[in-house]
Design brief:
The complex is a heterotetramer, with two copies of chain A (about 350 residues) and two copies of chain B (about 325 residues). With about 350 residues, chain A is of the alpha/beta class. Helices cover about 40% and strands about 20% of the residues of chain A. With about 325 residues, chain B is an alpha/beta fold. Classes of the chains: A alpha/beta (about 350), B alpha/beta (about 325). The structure holds thiamine diphosphate (2 copies) and magnesium ion (2 copies).
Chain lengths: ~350, ~325, ~350, ~325
């Protein structure tokens, strides 16, 4: 098994899908430029030509409608937004048209369309370039929403999404793009299937996308402290793999959800409400959700770092749920050894700006 | 123009008028339980445009789509059934009047969000270009839709990619009850806007079906040859209320006398006059009356959709 | 106390606010037309002139940005959308700009702006004219979201919203517009305060907007069956009156949320997850959420009626939570007597179309 | 043009250039931890436009706002502090480079969503009209923003209401790395688009600050008189990368030689030549160098904002 970056996994998924299926086309701002969306569309123009790799004007709303029109006739467009925020210009097309076209056409047409949305964070991005907003799409019947956390899932899920008959919103957190992972080519990841990353019995930790990386950063501390956590990577937000979550909670009796985004009316709210409706009898202590602060994200690093998820907060909440004391010295040592100096970058060699 | 073409144009105009009048008449029975936007007064636009389209040419439309659907040859039974919410409807009753569609006839659908089908139509044309299909795409919309940003984004894209599209702007002077003067500057000039975006622009009297037919004929030929997306603005007028089956001149949102003036330009009366041959006309109308009548009977007698169909769609 | 329609209450609120404060202006499609948005803007043009009552082009996105620009300088614009769906064209302005402007200007400017969104339903409106979508706004820090259920609250909440320094999304369900109610002019309804409509001890029913009307329709059946329900009208969705809800649940130990919209990642999800996080120890049985089916709404009445909330479903769920059997005959009698013949209209004399 | 005006124009151009160069030089210290979009090569636009504006005239800008902020007289210490994320920043460090603002100088802000400040600027003008203020509103944006629907919606509204607005389209040929030919039809004509929307349109060489100043002077006078919203397109060129402190001609997204050609048209060199008086220039630059240097020192020495300020804002 080879190890490649998340961004390379995306590229491979698109490349192989375009190779296999001539109906797949790409649309978006910057897909043919030298930076090629964090490298995820590198070389595709040369390989597949301007008819299939279509650089676009700054017209997000129309481009989305155009992709929809092309898709109902049989093309499989992939749209890319360099930031989730730009996609807000196309919400009308996404929610009123794309999500409903299969229904509105009484099943006669379907919309095999993928919209890649990249979540920004860090390096002073500020309030308009760092929102997650997964819940805005996850609420809508007719859409599928996925948010992989690693290269292998990203590759397989993107290929599945491209093959899929119905529209998929594909979330990529830009802090994942440079993380390497082994690609498991054998198994196809289906949309709607969560994955148990770590087996455990003391509590269930549910997370997804980059938030899961934050969880994995503190996994060793849990182990050191004999906390046996079962960690679930959702991978899909809609449909949600309710079974896997409930099964885990039936075993652990405890659940914490670590969210990429805001917690009020957020992704975690649905998961907890679902768990408590369907697995009330298993619950031994109040479930908990944490995510970023329910405020906008500042540019200045000292303010931004207070907004983001952080290891200490995650650990404290976990220990509270399982009703265990933390050795503060150990915790501080662990944090010191494992954290970046700056919370506005994922790794020391990360530089902004875009 | 030969007599046959003329007669055919008459037939379409008449068919639209008669269908709309029947809806208007029967609406108060409360069995067509959905919003309806009738095209009485505007029949010549759809008729004169669609008479130049081949069966596999594609159209896409708006909330006011009855005329386009009929003119492009959509199945009448399915249309009326759709408005009655029956399972024999073109969308199984899911959409009602604002969601007419007949894929076999290249009628891709219509939706009630102003302007939103414009990019979707452009996307169909992009598909055609990539897959080397020669179908022309015609996108119908009202002049209100040209106030939406997506219209401008769409024509820029269409011109950038030389997509063979006929944009039809049906200018009936009103958006719901709001006149042009409250929505667009006095010297607003759609021609310049189009040309600034590299679109060819034409204008025609939208109440004269023969004029519309001839102008569009020319344009369609040119688009098929050179792929330059083109917009034609057709001036016309809606007689009844924006939404619903009734006259509403009593509401006084339109200058007094305006409606009367436009009724004098009745597209149906005009083409009738241009044909002259009364027996021909009466034979045609009789046949159409029968067809229309039987569509309403068909719709009324049809069953409502069962809730089971829901599981056939993706949510 | 006089009794007026919900729509008249809206009109009074706007009229009185415009009278009192010259900064209040109105913008929107149809506000000066003969139908004047279900009568809610009737006569205002004549009274306040074209400078303050501004009919607009079909340009939702720009109009929203324009209102924002005017508001940061000191005007208090009220924008009206005849359907929630039209506002989707302006999501970028609402989420990126309006919600964040106070923050982005480091508190130097604020956005006293109200956006009225009307929820359509019934008479074959179909998939694109009947969505609720409150959660799309309730998730966003920087926005306030209110959704009154009766004329009195509507009037007071709208006046409060107009006076408010920060942006408010004001939801009106069109089936409420014709319902009459007594206006309590004394008390100002604050944004963020729920109201206990009925006191009770067996279970807590949380609802809002038109869904609350559906709940009140079956209240007598509950009484007849000696079910003592505490009914809470949320009125505000953001901020949420967590205290009132928790306090009620601390007493009843049971909660059901009746939602206007889709339940997945919906309004009810947040309420339940909040209750279970903060009031876990009070809960005696699994909480429950019901709302409309998680599918799009059809035009045909036979399909639409299966999508909407209905009394039977509400009653069944309530009895299940309190673990009580229902006398089916009584139930059927009750339903027959109290329901409309058609679920696509709220009252017998309701006619579409717009 | 008198010597003083010329010298003032020189000073602004020089100040922008020097600030941007200093940012570019110091960026690698990793203390300006936010995206920066520099205006080197485009200084004459902001300078020649803002030199015609009064202090209480208003501007609103985009991701590339440094030049506009400086030219409109924004406080330099606050700007540099903002980029350093310090609490002495014009937005207390909340926004960074893409959110510059100085309300005292009529600088309403800037945001990094392309096109989104255009309607906001129109809204400010609407406020001015309703409240009978005579401030002119100037809205800066790149040519990429004219591809957004909201631009078209906004100019329609501005013209409909005769709002005194100067739209400044800074055409630097690129949107990020993407050239015009991939975004707009060859014969795209912004003049026609503007005129079709009842806007007056002008064009000028955006690298000649004197020409820009003179042309805008005329235009501003006219707008103040007749309230006709007006757009001026200024042709110019960005020298460095779209976002970040570096040269990037090595990436080859621009035709070889293009950058060189534009560097020959350097706005700073040009105005310098037009002044000729070397001592005057050197006195001015020395003074500005000092001011700029001290702004960077100030910023570096300033404290970071404390998390407590968050509670001052509404969420
Ligand atoms: C985005 C959006 N805004 C507003 C509406 C409400 N609306 C329905 S039809 C209509 C009129 C549009 O006018 P026009 O495009 O000229 O079409 P016409 O009705 O005259 O045929 C409006 C504003 C809508 N459906 N969609
Ligand atoms: C709505 C939106 N789409 C895309 C982007 C990404 N983006 C940032 S700057 C930029 C370039 C815009 O070009 P132009 O308006 O010409 O300004 P310039 O950078 O040339 O000054 C783009 C596309 C964005 N910020 N907002
Ligand atoms: Mg019209
Ligand atoms: Mg540019």
């Amino acid at each position: 098994m080879k190890e490649i970056k998340f961004s390379e996994a995306i590229l491979e998924a698109i490349d192989q899908s375009m190779q296999k299926d001539k109906s797949v086309i790409l649309m978006g701002l910057g897909i043919t430029d030298p930076k090629s969306i964090f490298g995820t569309t590198k070389g595709l123009l040369k390989k597949y030509g301007v008819k299939r790799v279509i650089e676009t004007p700054t017209s997000e709303n129309a481009v989305t409608g155009i992709a929809l029109g092309a898709s109902i006739k049989g093309l499989k467009p992939i749209i890319t937004h360099q930031r989730v925020e730009f996609a807000l210009l196309s919400m009308e097309q996404i929610i009123n048209q794309i999500a409903k076209w299969n229904f509105m056409s009484a099943g006669k047409q379907s919309v095999p369309l993928v919209i890649r949305m990249i979540i920004g964070k860090g390096w002073g991005q500020g309030p308009q370039h760092s929102q997650s907003l997964e819940v805005l799409f996850s609420h809508i019947p007719g859409l599928k929403v996925v948010a992989p956390s690693n290269a292998s899932d990203a590759k397989s899920l993107l290929m599945t999404s491209i093959k899929e008959k119905h529209p998929v919103i594909f979330f990529e957190h830009r802090w994942l793009h440079d993380i390497k992972g082994k690609i498991e080519n054998k198994k196809e990841v289906k949309i709607g299937k969560a994955k148990i990353i770590k087996k455990g019995k003391d509590l269930t930790i549910v997370s997804f996308s980059e938030a899961l990386i934050q969880v994995m950063r503190i996994y060793n501390f849990l182990k050191m402290n004999n906390v046996s956590a079962e960690i679930i990577d959702l991978r899909s937000l809609r449909p949600l793999d309710e079974k896997t979550i409930i099964k885990s909670v039936s075993k652990t009796g405890k659940i914490i959800v670590i969210d990429n985004g805001w917690t009020k009316y957020g992704i975690a709210s649905e998961i907890i409400s679902m768990v408590v409706e369907k697995g009330f009898k298993f619950l031994k202590s109040p479930p908990k959700k944490i995510g970023i602060e329910n405020i906008s994200i500042s540019s200045s690093r000292t303010l931004a770092e207070k907004t983001y998820l952080n290891s200490k907060q995650i650990i404290h909440n976990i220990f509270k749920i399982i009703n265990k004391n933390i050795d503060k010295k150990k915790l501080n040592e662990f944090i010191k050894k494992n954290e970046n100096d700056h919370t506005d970058i994922p790794y020391q060699d990360f530089r902004g700006p875009f | 123009m030969n007599r046959n073409t003329k007669l055919n144009l008459f037939k379409i105009v008449y068919k639209i008028r008669k269908v709309e009048e029947t809806i208007s008449k029967l609406y108060s029975e409360n069995e067509m339980r959905c919003p309806v936007h009738l095209s009485i007064g505007q029949e010549a636009v759809a008729s004169g445009v669609c008479s130049n389209l081949k069966e596999n040419d594609e159209i896409i439309s708006t909330h006011r789509s009855h005329a386009h659907y009929i003119a492009k040859g959509g199945n009448l039974n399915s249309m009326i059934s759709e408005i009655y919410g029956k399972k024999s409807g073109c969308a199984l009753g899911i959409g009602g009047s604002m969601h007419l569609q007949d894929l076999k006839k290249g009628i891709n659908g219509s939706v009630p969000i102003v302007g939103s089908t414009i990019p979707i139509g452009v996307g169909i044309a992009l598909f055609n270009k990539i897959k080397k299909k020669n179908n022309l795409v015609t996108i119908f919309f009202g002049e209100g839709a040209t106030e939406e940003g997506v219209f401008h984004e769409s024509i820029n894209f269409a011109a950038l990619h030389n997509l063979p599209i006929l944009f039809v702007c049906e200018n009936n002077l009103y958006s719901v009850y709001t006149g042009l003067e409250q929505r667009q500057p006095k010297k607003r000039d759609l021609k310049k806007i189009c040309e600034g975006n590299s679109l060819a622009y034409y204008h025609e009297d939208g109440n004269d079906v023969i004029k519309v037919h001839n102008k569009v004929k020319e344009i369609v030929k040119r688009i098929r040859k050179n792929n330059q997306p083109t917009l034609i603005e057709l001036s016309t007028y809606r007689w009844l209320e924006h939404c619903g089956p009734n006259w509403d001149d009593n509401l006084r949102y339109r200058p007094s006398g305006e409606l009367k003036k436009w009724i004098k330009k009745c597209p149906l009366a005009r083409i009738k006059k241009q044909i002259k041959n009364k027996p021909l006309i009466s034979r045609a109308t009789k046949q159409l009356d029968k067809e229309i009548n039987s569509a309403f009977v068909f719709a009324k007698n049809s069953k409502f959709p069962s809730n089971k169909i829901i599981k056939n769609f993706y949510f």
